[in-house]
Structure formats: structure tokens, C-alpha cells
Amino acid sequence: MIKERVREAMVGEGAPGETAPPVVRLEGLCKAFEEGGRQRVVLDKVDYQFDRGQFVVLLGHSGSGKSTLLNLISGIDRPSEGHVSVLGTRITALNERDRTLFRRDHIGFVFQFFNLIPTLTVLENVTLPQELAGRARRELEPTALRLLDRVGLADRRDAHPDKLSGGEQQRVAIARALAHDPLLVLADEPTGNLDDETGERVLALLLELTRDAGRTLLMATHNPDIAPRADRVLQLHDGRLVE
Amino acid sequence: MKRLWWVIGIIGLVVVGLVVGRPLWARDAAPPAASLEALPPAGSGEGFARATEPNAIAFPRDLGPHDDYQTEWWYYTGNLQTADGRPFGFQFTIFRRALTPEDVLSADLADSADLRGSSESAQSAQSADQSSSWRTEQVYLAHFTISDIAADAFYPAERFSRGAAGLAGATAEPYRVWLEDWSVEQVAPGQVRLRAQTGDVATGNVALDLLLTETRPPVLHGDGGLSQKGPERGNASYYYSLIGQRAAGTVAVGGERFDVTGLAWKDHEWSTSALSEGAVGWDWVSLQMDDGGALMLFEIRSGAGDDGRGGSQTRPYNAGTYVAPDGTLTHLTQGDWTLEVTDTWTSPTSGGEYPAGWRISVPSVGLELRGRPQMANQELNVSTVYWEGAVAFEGTRDGAPVSAEGYIELTGYAGSMAGRL
Amino acid sequence: MMVSIDLANGSARRAFALSTDAITGKATHRVAGGPTGLDEAVYRDIRVAAGFSPAAPVVEGYVGVPELSGQPLRLVGIDPFAEPPFRDYFAPAAGGANGGSLDASALTTFLTEPNSLIISADAAAEAGIALGDTLTVNVAGREIAARVVGLLRPADDVSRRALGGIVFTDIASAQEMLDLRGRLSHIDLIADDEAALAPIAALLPPDASIETAAARQNAVQQMTAAFEFNLSALSLLALVVGMFLIYNTVTFSVIQRRPLFAVLRMLGATGGQLFALILGEAVLLALLGSLLGLGLGVLLGRGVVGLITQTINDFWFAVNVQGVSVPPSSLIRGLAVGVGAALLAAIVPAIEAARTAPQSTLRRSTLESRIRRLLPWLVVAWAALTLAGAALLWLRGGGLFTAFAGLFAVLIAAALLAPPLTDVFMRLVAPLTGRLLGALGRLAPRDIIRSLSRTSIAVAALMTAVSVIVGVSIMVGSFRGTVIEWLDQTLQADIYVSPPNVTANRVIGALAADAVATARTWPGVARAVSSHTVQVQLPQFGRLVQLVAVDGDVSNGNRPYAWVRPDLGDDPWPALMAGEGVIISEALALKENLPTPPPDITLPTAGGPRDFPVLAVFYDYSSDQGSVFIGDATYRTLWDDARVSAVGLFVEPGQPVDEVTAALAARFAGRSDVLVQSNEALRRGSLEIFDRTFAITSALRLLAIIVAFIGVLSALLSLQLERARELGTLRATGMTRRQLWGLTLLETGLMGATAGLMALPVGYALAWILVYVINVRSFGWTLTMDLRPEYFIQALLVAVGAALLAGVYPSIRVGNMEIASAIREE
Q1: ipTM over 0.85 threshold
Q2: DSSP state of B36
Q3: How many domains does chain C have?
Q4: In CATH, what number does A52-75+97-242 get?
């Protein structure tokens, strides 16, 4: 599978850096929206790359294009121009189905509004992406439970999301994002909908489970307080990325 | 009394009455001219018998119908009064008209039997007993009026029927002419019962029930009953009258019933012929005098009928009969008399201007009479509009005073009859 | 749909009323006679002896005129002289000078030329017939040439339409053409009060009676009342399903704009204002929709009216519908019902909109939890309503109305049960699908449960539609099966000789006497039984029934009986032949609610009414009006009517039936007034009529499906709108488009299956009610319920199929959604 190959390329014994492709490479990325009959350029010829294990914070005011950038990287959205490569795969060249499969296998996603599936239990929410990939639930459950344990919610495995607090929901969402062991985790304002204290705990958990595990975490937020803990802080301003 | 032409028209109008579809006794005077013009020519009597022979009338045979002639009527008029002198007049007429000659009918039947040509049913359809008893060529029309002279009220009524299925018809022996429950029928030799009534809501029950008793032999008009109407052979009618019939019975009008007596006059005439070209109407006079004499005259008017004047433009076939008290007949022809109009009356309903006063002079029998209608409005606004009413005359015969009562008929005054015929 | 049925029904009824009016005219009363009509002498007596003027004789019958119309026409023989007070068609058209209108010469010809016709100018123009053309009038197989001598152009539209189905001829021609010489069908009278009729009553023969014109019309119209009521009820059913649809649609529009409502609420709109807004919208839309529906209804009505007319012609009386009349009352009713139903259906969504909180994220779950709390109560409501429905059905002697009320109660109750049952079913099925299909299999049933307020409505709509299909299919199938069996038992003779019928199911006219004789003595024929069918009005009930004079049992003893007088054993025929009484049909017994044993039946004989004991009650599916069998000898004596309308022949054993039939047919070859049919052909013909009669039900079935389909579709669409973010998440977390399609289709399939499964018992219940209650009360027919697995399988397939089909568009739509915006929304 691609995943194994990619992983080998990334974490194998071979020398890191030069040989391994960056986790994310943006080439001349442009995104423009029609808005009120006028073109609004959100991203303007962005060239960038993020390396493995980095915690990158993407700052920008509301509507600056942070979420758009994350969507482009995850393949949910398509750019107007330019390319996105994730783990050496140029996803902008993939078709919709392959993008979906790629995302399912390599990318974890954490949303501002948690976006848990209300009809599924906590455990089922965590195993869902891999089940969709055709894996049997039974073989997924140990990993999922382990993850839930890590986020401190193992005892709530059979609860439905609407019985959980916002922080708990976001922790389930983090577990879900990590269940398939992705190298890249995208988080869009993961603390935006939480109070400060809960947000802090969720952030800590997220960092612990990503950077410390060698994953790349790309987090969009408008909260500058998070910036100091990042490896890199990027500012999205007028369609441009600046450090 | 040469009503013949216009009666032909009337019977033609039977059909028109149906066309118009107006209810019986309708007072609507406007004639549906468009439809009338489409009437089949009334006089195209091909296939019918024609009146050609003098002295051909025989009784009782000729009391009955003559279906092979196109047109026929039994015409009763009379002047009645109650014991205390209240006067009434009545007219009761049954007309017959053959729509097509009988032999044409049977040919038709044979032609149009069964299309299918299955021998069995085709044959059966042709046999005579296969035709409905409603099948007929004979159409009957009846007019019935009562003139309540004291009340100045006039009650006309009209009925139609086919001459079949027992609904209307005529027989010679026993003598009977009927249209539904309007009938004249013999009850004893020389005596007939005449009955008619209407149940019209507007006028209440109007009824007539009279016994008529013959007192004098039949009067054969013209040449032994052959009354010539035009120059052509066959353009004539058979025409006889029973005059001086004593009438006794009851009249019912306005919810009251009156015992009455009086004198009645019957005409019976049949023919197949056409109204002469240019005729617009005619006047007919029947008078019975207190000295036992009687006078019948008819004049056909032609040209501008609007002048209302009968005398000036009459046709050569005007004729009349004077019956002397002793029964002697004097046949009158054009020029034997003068009929002068001395007054007129305009109908408020039809607008027609009718003569309403006359001076009659018949020098050859020494008769001088002046008279008037007994009441002005005796106009029938039925399928044909005409005036037929009771009249009273005074005058002299051979210098001796006489008075007379009778009926006068005036046609073609409310719209020309010519357009219809 | 309702409008179209209403219109078609109305059109047929009106066409009949019009043609009746056209015949009745201004008559207030009529003199009616026995089965052979009246002696024409009665009319003469009325006119001449009684001197009663407003009287008009009528000789009428049904004929075929192929050049003019495919439907039977009423040949009306009139006496033009008696007409003016009654009917004014013979007046020239207003405005006069039109060459084609009736003129005097036309009437002269009409009177004098045999077989001359006057027809409506419109009908003539439509058929391309000109004045003077010769038409073929088919009277019970005899073809008679008749010439059109007049065209009627009535001034008003009503008369014009009324005259379309009438052919006038002179009464003499009518008697000749219809072979009714010396007879009249009836005599019309105008009288202000009964007193005016006393002199007429005094001179009537015993078999004649005076009845009011209205009573007669009622007796005839009553014949189709049940049929029309059934149709109306079915159209109401469409409305019920339609209400689900409206509910779903309005809900959809509310959900779609929930953000807008939230904003409005924030800006200060009160809940009441939102409520009014939604209802106002619903009214506007309903108005638009109803108007559109009216247009469609009128169009559909044109199609349906043919079916209905055909049925009425087949079974009851000839009616000639010239197009669909669209009375404003029908339209207004349709509009009112449409808007009313829409309002009713929109109330719940309107309340939902009114309760939209400014912050609307949690709206759905509260609504759903409310629904969940409601579930037990729905079960209670179901039980109560079902019991009420059962009680209504149980009501002895209850009319058709209560029966249908009961039917609807049961049906609506079943719809109420849809949410709890859906819930239970999904819980049951979830583990199974989960095991089989993994995450999708778990997701689908749970999604359905979660959105019960949407899904169960769709399920209810689909269930209603499908159960109607099941019910009607079973009913029609049972009916057909019963009729086939009945035909098998009843039609035992090998050959049938009859006049060809102008209409399908009713015997009109009689067989030529020579044909009867020929058939009876035909070589190879062992036995012949004759029958003569006439229509009489039973004075006891005021009902028109078929009186059938029989001289033998055409079923050869195989006929099943509902009841036989105990002392007669199994076979009432010897007693019938001996003139001991009559055999009546089950329909008559049921419709008049006769007890068992039935009381004596009074028949109007030529010598006045006479009572006859009832020997037996037989099953008869040929007439819903009731039939009375009477011994041939008794009939001939009491009615003085020698005609025979049909002969059944039993071929000698050993003789080849086909050859005897063919030989007899050859003997009558070329005779269009005799029809020789084999047993097989007659049976086939009967079934053809049957199938034609129920053709309209298949249209109804299709319609129900379409409505249900749209219901499921709109339910799915609104569901997807609500779940956009959830679906977006699924996509974002890696669900492929195909998997999403699968999920959607799985959900709709499950909904369809639920509806289909529910529809099975409900459909069975409906069928039971239709067969054992509605049919018995409408037509007086007892049917044997015929259950076949294919009805149920078909229903299930239809339900799942319709649901899956309805899921196609939504799943494509959801596949193409923008994940990015879906996630961000709300």
C-alpha cells in the first residue's frame, strides 16, 4: 500500500531531510472565490512546504483563508491553480475518489465543531474512517480503545456524542483523527468552540498525540496564544503566507 | 266563404306552430317569418284528388273526411244567448291537412324498410300491419273561441294533433269529428253534440257543450257543391253548409256556466288547390236573418291589402249564396253585391286594422243591410292572426225590415297572408 | 386527482341528468307501465276521454348509430304535436336565418317520412354528418336506414350538450324501429298537483302508474350512486397520501431556511409571525398547486370520464358524455379541499418553524426526542382509531359512508403506527445490517430512527399507497376469481343465442321469434333454456331490478345459492318452474337489507301488483341492482309478453359442441340480429367487461405510487439538508462518494421495506374491508377472498422499488455536495 511505502520513505533508516519528500508541499497555490460577482483571491501563489513532525500554526483573522488552505491540503477542496503534494503524492492530480481514499488513509481531521456522527457511539465514531476503508471493526477496536484511553474517554466508549461535553467531543474527534495513524493531522480551530481551560487541555492532548509521535500537525487558529508552542508560525495575510 | 286559401295556410302553419314551439294559447303575435318562408308550397297538390265534378256530394258519406284531398275543414259558428238575453258567440273549427298524398306514403314505407336485406325481416317490414298506428299523413288543427259579448271578453284556443292513434280524426257514420276531447259527434239523426273546453290557467275554464239540431237541408254552394276558386279545372272545393241549426246547451266562461240557445252554422269544405297569386287575405260573411233567410259571401283581396278595402280589388272568383226563407238558393257572383266598409278597428295586440262596420247590398234579392261586430276584439292571436267574430246586422229585404246575426271572418289584415302562402 | 374524479363523475352524472332532462323536459309526472311499456290507448284516453292536454307520449330505447357515436344513443320517439309544453328543442335557433336549422319542411318530412331523424347539430358536425345523410340505426342487431332530416341547434349550451346522446324520431318511426308497435315507453305529464291527475289515475290500466319525474330520475341515479361514491372515496385516498406529501414539502422548505428563520428570530420576529409566514406560504403554494391541479384534473378528467362512462354504460344505463363539463362548484370544491389539506398538513412544520430558536443547532434533537416521547401515544392512538374503524365497519345496516369512514379510520390508524413501527423495525434490523454491511449498515437504520419525524412520514405515505395497492389488488383479484368461478358454475349451456347488445352487459330488445324456434329445434341440441330480461320497478323498494323470466336453469343445477327455502332441498328450480314463487339475487337481498328468510316480493304485473314468495337467494354478479327470476309460464301469463331475449342450448352428449355451434352460426350468417356465442366466447366477453370496469383502479394505483414516490423523495431531500454537515463530516473523514450513495440507498431501501412490510397486513385489512364490507354494501356482492402471495410480493417490490428510485436523485445530489461548505455550515 502507498501508506507503507510512504512511511518507509519518511521514517526509514535512510537519511532524513534531503531524501524524504516534505509532508506537505504547496506549489503556486491559488484559490479564488466568486463573491458578489467579484473574484476574491484567498490564496495567491502560495509556495511552501511543511516537514515531518512539525507543529505548524496557521494564524489569520476570520475569513483569511485558513480553513480553505486546510481543505486544499486535505483534498476536500480543489485549488484554482497550483498543486498540493502530500507525502510526495500530488493530490491535486488525483481524482475525487482517489483523493477521498488518500485522505482516509493519510490525513486526520479535527474540526472546530467536532463533527461527530450523532448516530454512532464514541467507539464507532473512532473506528468509522477505517471501517469505511473496509477494515473489520473487531481488528480496529483495540487501537481505537487505546486511543480513547489516551484521550481519557475509554469509559465512555458506548455513549453517544450528544451525551458528551464539548471538550469530550473534541477529544473523541482527536481520537478519530488519529485512529488510522496518519502522518498529517489537520486541525481547524480545534479549540475555537471550547472554553479556555478545556481548550488548553485539548491542545495539550493534541500536541502530545501528534508532534510527540512524529506526526505533522497543521493547525489553523486565530488564537495567537498558541503560536509560542509551535515549531513554525505562519500568518495568512492577503492571500500570502508569511512566517 | 272562401276561407279555403287561408285555411290551407293555417294548416300549413300547424307545422309552423310546432316549429316555433310556443305553448298553446300563446299570445305572442309576432309570426316567425323566417321559418314561414320555408314552408312547402301549400298548393303543390300533386298526387291529391281534386274537386272537379258538380253534384258529387252525397250524404252521409261526405260528412266524413276526404283524406285524398289536401285540405278539409268542419267549421261551426253560432250566435247564442241566455234566457235573459245575454249574448255569446262561438267558433269551433277542426281543420285537416294531408302532408303528403297517401300513396306516396306507402311507397316511402316500402323503400325504407330494412336496410339489411335479410329476406325475412324485409318482407315483414313491408306488410301493412307492421306500421305504427301513429303513422299518418293527416294533421289536424282546431280553433275554438267563445265571445262573451256582455263582458267584452274573447277566449280563443288552438290545438294540434296528428290524425292517428285515435287522437284526432273524422268519421262519416256515425258522424264524428274530433281532436282529442274537442269533438262534434252525432247523437241522434240530424242532431250532433259539440263539446270543447280549455283548461288554460290564464282564462279559467272555458267550455262549450251544445246540442245542434238540423232544421233545414244542406246548402250546396257553387255548382251543386263544386265551388270554383280559380280559372283552372280542379282549383275548386267541395263546399256545403248546414244552416239554421238550433243550438241548445251550456257555455262556461270565467268560472260561470250559462244555459244558452241560439242558431249555428256549419260549413264543411274540402279541396286540393292553391291560393291565387297576389291574394293577401279574404273576407267571409255568414248571416242568418230573422225572416229565415241566410247569406254567405266571400271576397278575396289582392294587391295592397293595407287599404283594408274589400270591394275595389276583389278577384273574379268571389262568390256567395243567398238562401231564401223558403229554401230557394240564389248563387251570387262578382258584381251581384257590394260590400262596403263603414268603420275600422285597430288591434292593440297585432296592430292590424280590421273593418268593423259594413254596408251590404244585394240588389238581385232586394237585400240592404248595415251591421257591426258585436264586440270589437275578436281577433285570434294563435298560430295565424285573424279576426273571426260574431256580428249583428239590421236592414231591409224587399223593403221589409230584417235583422241578422252571424259571423264574419277577416284575414290578412295583420300582415299579409301572401307572404306565408 | 380528486378534481378529475369529481369532474368525471360529475360529468357522467350531469350527462345523464341532462339527457334525462332533455327527455323529461318540463314534465312533472309520468305515466309508467310494466316491462313492456304502456298500451298506447292509455295516451289516447288521457287526451280524448280525460281531455288532459299537457301530456306527451314517448317511445324510447337504446340504439347504436355507428356513424354518430361509439356509445349507445337514446332513440326518443316523440309526437311533435304534443311536444311544445314539454321540450323546446324544436324552436329555431335564436337569430333565425340559418339554413341548417329546423324548418317547417324538416318537420313535415320528420312526420311523414318513416325513420327520419333529428339530431343535434353539434353531434352531427363532430361526426361529419350533414343534413340528408342516411345513418344506420342498430336496434338489437337489426340495422335500419334512417335519414337525418333536421339538425337541432339549441341556443343554450346545456341543451346542446344534453342532446348529444339523443336521437329524435317521430313516435311512429320509433315504434316501428324499436319494434314497440302499440306501446309507449311512458307518457309525460305536467300537473300542478296530484289532484289534477286524478282523472288520469282513474283510467289507467293496472300495470300503469303515475310517478313524479324526480322519483324516476332518482331511481335511475341511485343505481350508480354506490359506484360514484366508491370513486370519490378513492380520490379522497389520493388526498390523504397527498397530505403526507405536503407535510414533507413544507417541512423541507422550513428546514432549508432554518438559518433564515433563526436570523429573523434574532431580528425580533415572534414565533407567531413565523407560524403565520409558513401558513401563508402554504396557502399561496396550495393555491398555486391546486390551480395547477385543477388544470391537470380537467385534463385527467377527460381521460377518466371515458372509463367511467364505459362502466356506467356496461352496467346501468346508456349515457353519452359529450366532453367534460367543468362546473365552477367542482373547481371550487377542489380548490377548497386542496388548500384546506395543505393548511392542515402545513401546521406541524409551521409550528416547527415558529419554535426556531435564534441559536438553532440543537433543534432537531429536541424535535426528535419529542417524537420519541410520542411513540407510545401513537400506538395508543393507533389502537383507538383501529377500534373505532372496526366499530364503524361492524355497525350493522351502516351505509356505505360509515363503511368508508371505517376504512379510512383503519388506514389513518395504520399511518399513525408508522413511526413506532419504523423505530422498532430499525432497531431490530440494525444489528443485522451492521454485521452484513459494516459501518454503513449501522449508520443507515440509526439515521432513520434519528430522523423519525421525517422518515416515518415518508414511510407512512409509502405504506398507505402500497397498502391501497395491496388492498385493491386483492379485492379486484378476489372479485375476478369469484366472477370466474361463478361464470363457470352458472354458464353451463354450450351455446348462447341472443341479439347482439348495443351495450355490453344489459340485454336490450328481444330475439326474433323465428331465431328462437330455429335454435330450440336445431339438430344436436338436447335441451334449450330461454330467458327474457326486462327492467321493472319494485313498488316495495322503489328499486329498478331485472326481472328474468326463465324456463330452465342455464347453470344445470350448478348455481350456488346464498339461501334456499329449507323445504325445497338444494334445488329451488322445480318450485320456480311450477310458479310457486321467485328467486331473488343476493344483491337485492343485501341492498334492501332483507331478513332471512326474505319476505314476499311484490312485482308489478300487467294485472296489478302481486306478491310472490321467495324460494331462494342466488349469487349474481351480473347486476348490482338486483335480479328476480320468475318462471317462464308465470311471466307469460301475468305480463302478456311473448318475447325472449336469450336462449341457452345444451348440446346432446357425444355431439361435437364446436361443430353444432358453427353450424348454428352458419344458419344465422348474414343476420345481424342474431348472435351465436359459444360458452367460451360468452365467458371471455364477460371477463372483458370485468377488466374494463376495473381499469380505473389501475390508474388509481399508479397515482398512489407516484404520490408516495414524491413523498419519499421530498422526505429524503429534507433529511439531507438537515444532515448536510454530518454527511460532510463523513465525506471529510474519508467516506467515498459511492459509499455515500450506498448509505442513502440503504436508508431509502430500509424505509421502503418498512413501508412494504407494514403495507402487507394493512393491505390485507383493506382488502378484507373492501371485499366483505364495501363491496357488499355498494353492490350487494359477496366475494370469496382470494389471497395470492404475488400480491404481497408485488407490494413489497413496489415499496422498495419506489423508495430506491426515490433515493436515486438525493444520493446523486449528496454525492456532489461541496464538502468544504457542508462542514462549515451552521
Answers
A1: no
A2: H
A3: 4
A4: 3.40.50.300
